[in-house]
Amino acid sequence: MSAAVLEAEKLIATITIPAQRQIVIDLQVEMAVDEPCFTQISTAVAKDVALSAKIIKLINSPFYGLSRPVGSISQALSLLGLNNFNNIVLSSVMRELINVDGELNERFWEHTLLMARLCEMVALRTRMVSADLAYMVGLFHDCAVPLMLARFPDYEDIAFPGLGGGKNLITVEDERYCTNHAVVGSMVAKNWKLPDVVSLAIRHHHESSLDHINDNDARVLTAILMFSDFISMLADSSVSTNLESGKIEGWAQYHRHILIELGLNCDDVYEYREDAAELLMRD
Ligand SMILES: [Fe+2]
Ligand SMILES: [Fe+2]
């Protein structure tokens, strides 16, 4: 067991991980069957009145641009379809589980929700792994950041600039705490009973190579996370176009293994950057 994992275990023992909601586990089971039962799903979700209210509020927000407001969970499910509905339940639960104080709150959620949508988009286009898993991995990939923020008073100064996905954040975390949010996050994902491939991808999402990830889905999900983290950073960036193109070429060269894994090339980075900027504008 690596030192980072041991330290992460010690750290986990000192922080309170919010309990996973049963509905997430139930939904994963239902999603995995050949013909998921819509009635069973909407009944299970509707039982949680507070969560249902949040889901309905979110669906009726301008982001979804519905012509008529939705009034019930079963209506929402039939209108959105199972996959979109599952994504909304997951992000609503994630908002309940994770609480970020102060200034970082908006930044964390903007990055997290953009990542979920970007990961899903990459999965839908590359068709190598389930889009639901990709959405889930995007949503939970930095779930340890708020927990570390609550645990370490000096975490805020590194989490702020590092949230967009640089390697620097991991280096500083390892130096300061002998572990990092990728290792802690993978343990939280396990604790929350998310699929193993999700936990594995979170574990490796800041590493420089994919070679040691034997599971095919976990390797693709990790590549999707790393690609999307870079795209989210570009969409968020205020640097000049010249600097950006230099940065993109450099990234594409250094991270060729990620592009190869996903069957993408450097031009795709520019395309996804535009799509990410559009997603941000829709919010
Ligand atoms: Fe991260
Ligand atoms: Fe991230």
How does this structure look, described?
The chain is mainly alpha-helical. The protein has two domains: 195 residues, Hypothetical protein af1432 (Orthogonal Bundle); 79 residues, no CATH class. Helices cover 72% and strands 0% of the residues. It contains 17 helices and no strands. The protein is globular. The N and C termini lie far apart (42 Å). The model has no long low-confidence stretch (mean pLDDT 88). The chain binds fe (ii) ion (2 copies). The site of one fe (ii) ion has 7 residues, from helix 7.
Bound molecules: fe (ii) ion
Distance between the termini: 42 Å
- Spell out the CATH superfamily of the largest domain: Hypothetical protein af1432
Biggest beta sheet summary: none
Class from secondary-structure proportions: mainly alpha
| CATH architecture verdict of the largest domain | Orthogonal Bundle
Which fold name corresponds to the CATH topology of the largest domain?
Hypothetical protein af1432
Order of helices and strands: HHHHHHHHHHHHHHHHH
CATH class of the largest domain: Mainly Alpha
Helix count equals 17
